[in-house]
Amino acid sequence: MLADARRRAQEEQMRAAEQARVQAEEEERHIAGLETVKQKAEAEARQRSEKEQRIKSEIMALSKAEEEQRQRIEAEIKRRAEAETR
Fold first, then answer.
1. Is residue 81 classed as helix, strand or coil in its secondary structure?
2. Is residue 44 packed enough to be buried (19+ CB in 10 Å), middle (13-18) or exposed (0-12)?
3. What is the Cα–Cα distance from 65 to 48, expressed in whole angstroms?
4. What distance in Å separates the CA atoms of residue 29 and residue 27, rounded to the nearest whole number?
5. For the whole prediction, is pTM greater than 0.85?
6. Per residue of the chain (86 residues), what is the pLDDT tens digit?
7. What is the SS3 string spanning 20-46?
């Protein structure tokens, strides 16, 4: 009877250890999945930031070109007006 109780206790301990191992493996897989999602989100955020910077640079370049063209047009208008008054 004591031997049966020890055997049952040992079996129960083995089942508990196996259950703990399986649960730990599931948690590791879950953590790995979350890490993958995190890395993907970080990469997407980096790409969005880089795209935003490129667009801002393009806007600044276009604004500068627009200002330079406006100044050239104004200078040409002034030159023609001066030429007509002569």
1. helix
2. exposed
3. 26
4. 5
5. no
6. 888 889 999 999 999 999 999 999 999 999 999 999 999 999 999 999 999 999 999 999 999 999 999 999 999 999 999 988 87
7. HHHHHHHHHHHHHHHHHHHHHHHHHHH
For residue 54, give the amino acid letter: R
Q: Locate 82 and state its tokens.
A: 């001066």
- Scan for tokens 């301990």, then name that residue: 13
Token pair 């993907």 is at which residue? 40
Check residue 47 and report its DSSP letter. H
Q: Which residue has the tokens 């191992």?
A: 21
